[in-house]
Design goal:
Elements: E1 6-10, H1 17-28, H2 51-63, E2 65-72, H3 83-92, E3 97-101, E4 121-125, H4 128-147, E5 153-155, H5 158-163
Parallel strand pairs: 1-2, 2-3, 3-4, 4-5
């Protein structure tokens, strides 16, 4: 049995790489209270030209993941080859899902990929403090909501944001 301690982050590699890199920088800098054990650090697809080779490496990352985050940018909903597959895999594995809106939205909006619109997930804007809060809060909330038979999207109320000065 695999020990799951990783965070899997899906994103539009062509347009939103800077946000992913910023998250990894937050995690690496001791001045931030942001810690991810990044599933992408596990391996690199050796033959990046072959879809199945890439998916094999991604499945290994999923096998070690306990949390799934997707950076939702302007074009994320249009990505059907890998991001859609990653979202569908996270749903199938029943991983807690955090949708991170790069446009600042605190809820699900029209940029959300259709493959996760009705899925149990929480949505937050791209901000280190609220993402950290969601990483700590959502896995247990996801489990509670799943046990209660709830589906659909969730968001944090204004008082949570105010507690962080947001």
């Amino acid at each position: 049995m695999t020990y799951r301690n990783k965070t899997y982050i899906a994103f539009d590699g062509d347009n939103d790489m800077r946000y992913y890199r910023l998250m990894t920088a937050w995690s690496a800098h001791e001045g931030f209270n942001f810690n991810i054990y990044n599933a992408h650090d596990l391996n690199t697809a050796r033959d990046s030209s072959q879809e199945e080779s890439i998916k094999r490496q991604l499945r290994e990352r999923f096998a070690n993941s306990k949390l799934f985050m997707v950076l939702i940018g302007e074009k994320t909903r249009l990505l059907t080859k890998f991001v859609k597959w990653e979202i569908e895999t996270a749903i199938r594995l029943d991983l807690p899902i955090i949708g991170i809106n790069l446009n600042g939205s605190r809820t699900q909006d029209d940029r959300c990929p259709s493959s996760m619109r009705d899925t149990l997930a929480v949505y937050v804007p791209f901000n280190e403090k609220i993402i950290t809060y969601a990483m700590n809060d959502w896995p247990s909330s996801h489990l509670e909501n799943r046990r209660a038979g709830k589906t659909g999207w969730f968001y944090y109320y204004d008082h949570v944001y105010k507690s962080f000065g947001l």
